[in-house]
Design brief:
Blueprint (H helix, E strand, L loop, with lengths): L1 E4 L6 H12 L1 E5 L26 E2 L12 H17 L3 E5 L3 H9 L9 H13 L3 H9 L1 H6 L5 H14 L3 H6 L11 E5 L3 H17 L2 H10 L14 H9 L4 H24 L4 E4 L6 H17 L1
Parallel strand pairs: 1-4, 1-5, 2-3, 2-4, 5-6
Helix pairs in contact: 1-13, 2-3, 4-7, 5-7, 9-12, 10-11, 11-12
């Protein structure tokens, strides 16, 4: 199995297509937003024509209000990559959601299932007293609190949920071992383009998304009956488009915040993948011929070793 990862906007999709064409591969999505139906423009989801006839898996597999956890992703992705391998084709896991890749390769701890009532109470406390979730986690599990950003409410709630339901910190669950993927050797390729050039491309891509109808896409999703509180509408770009529709932001400000937050997200992705074991870094964008040749050479050697 080959994984193509890296920060948003670095050309992962294009590199995945190029490797799939050369090595008879199929792409397995590893982006936590592209699993949702109707979220197309703001996720930079490839159209069917842009996929160039290469099979893509785990795209548009969940409705916007369905919970789709890293554990669910790992379960489905493991089944898909085994089916691809059984066809004597190369599974190419492509995307920037590091937690999904880690769940797929290393497995997750056998923690408790979601408790929606508890989660609701925690979110209510956070709404009344911003910062409550992180402060509480610092008391219950300081190690997990150091790893989770103070504004990442979804991860904070999960960490607190585990602590409160099991009486055991999330960090201790992680240390107790997980069920790793078996039967596959894994090559992890991470794109590392020049930072300033990436930020310039991200700013341009955000502007193209708004010009291409991002606000109208959000309006259509709301018209289907989905509430504005669903998880994918909290993502960069979508949150700002929603604020425009509510009259909370003018378009110029919405674009500014979407661009800024996307750059910050790219920086966090870089940090995550630098801590991911076994990653081979490629200096460049995935749509550059030199980067594609370097990646193909690595894949060729990797397959020869097999």
């Amino acid at each position: 199995m080959v994984a193509v990862v890296g920060p948003t906007g670095s050309g992962k999709s294009e590199l995945g297509l190029r490797l799939a064409e050369e090595f008879d591969g199929e792409v397995v999505n590893c982006d936590s937003l592209q699993v949702y139906r109707w979220f197309d423009i703001g996720t930079a989801k490839l159209t069917c024509a842009e996929r160039r006839g290469i099979p893509h898996h785990l795209i548009d597999v969940a409705n916007p209000d369905e919970p789709f956890t890293a554990g669910e992703y790992a379960r489905r992705a493991r089944q898909v990559i085994r089916e691809i391998a059984a066809r004597n084709r190369l599974p190419l896991v492509v995307g920037g959601t590091g937690l999904y890749l880690r769940a797929l390769v290393d497995g997750l701890f056998p923690g408790p299932t979601r408790d929606d009532e508890l989660r609701g109470r925690l979110m209510e406390r956070e709404a009344r007293r911003p910062g409550f979730l992180h402060r509480m986690l610092r008391r219950l599990d300081p190690e997990a609190a150091r790893r989770i950003h103070a504004t990442d409410r979804h991860k904070l709630v999960r960490a607190l949920e585990v602590c409160l339901l099991t009486g055991r910190p999330l960090s201790r669950w992680f240390a107790s071992g997980r069920e790793a993927l078996t039967g596959f050797r894994v090559l992890k390729l991470a794109l590392n383009p020049p930072r300033e050039e990436l930020y310039r491309r991200l700013d341009e891509r955000c502007a193209r998304m708004f010009a291409a109808g991002l606000i109208e896409e959000v309006r259509r999703i709301l018209a289907m009956g989905y509430p504005p509180t669903i998880k994918p509408l909290q993502a960069h770009g979508y949150r700002q488009a929603l604020q425009v529709l509510r009259g909370e932001l003018e378009l110029r400000k919405a674009l500014y915040y979407a661009q800024r937050n996307t750059r910050r997200y790219a920086k966090r992705q870089w940090t995550w993948f630098r801590h991911e074991p076994g990653v081979v870094w490629l200096n460049g964008f995935g749509d550059e011929p030199e980067t594609q040749r370097a990646a193909a050479d690595l894949v060729r050697r990797f397959l020869a070793e097999s």
